[in-house]
Amino acid sequence: MAEQKNGMFKYMKYSVIGIEMAMSVVVGAAIGYFLDIWLGTEPWMMLLWLIFGVIAGFRALYRTAKRIMKEMEKDDNQGSD
Predict the structure, then answer these.
(1) DSSP state of 81
(2) Taking the domains of the chain in order of start, what are their residue ranges?
(3) Which helix (H) or strand (E) holds 40?
(4) What is the pLDDT of residue 2?
(5) Phi, psi of 41 (to 5 degrees)
(6) Model confidence over 38-75: pLDDT tens digits?
């Protein structure tokens, strides 16, 4: 039973990547949308903040991939001892 939980936890860590990417884009677009309504600058703020959201999503993707690679290297090093 413990092995199943450990396996499920591994997959849950990987699913976070997609969720982070999607939420970054959605939050960026939402901020831009509401700023457009408030400032009357349609569609410029939404486009700008959408780009910021995409950049933030890729940054989070890079950091998560880097962390996963470190964990895999650590597991490989422990397995060879």
Answers:
(1) -
(2) 21-69
(3) none
(4) 54
(5) -110, 30
(6) 999 999 999 999 999 999 999 998 998 898 888 888 87
